[in-house]
Amino acid sequence: MRCDDCNATIETDEMREHLGRQLCEDCYMVTLSPMKTCDPWAVHSAKTYEKHAGEERFLTPLQQAILKALKDEGPLEPTALQDKLDGDHPLEDLERAFSALRHMEKVRGEKRGQRILWRLW
Ligand SMILES: [Zn+2]
Known about the structure:
45% of the residues lie in helices and 15% in strands. By secondary structure, it is an alpha+beta fold.
């Protein structure tokens, strides 16, 4: 038989079943790996945190606006936050500002079902 994921030939006794799929040992391990379910914000933060640790930072007007909006409105999806802010900020700018604020532990991402909400720390 063949692995449903990587198509490798597997012996029947090496076959692992996961959510109705027949997987080889390797794919089964990857499927179960906690990395798969890791919060992407946390991973991103862990990678870049050291780089910014101890660095003196001042809030940009956009960062201040994000903090104020989250304080007034509560947790928001990035696009909803975008609507609340004055001016026409591209989502990439918001994400960059959010990322910087996250390093300062002022905001964080929160997963609710399929949605990611931004909220105060
Ligand atoms: Zn496989």
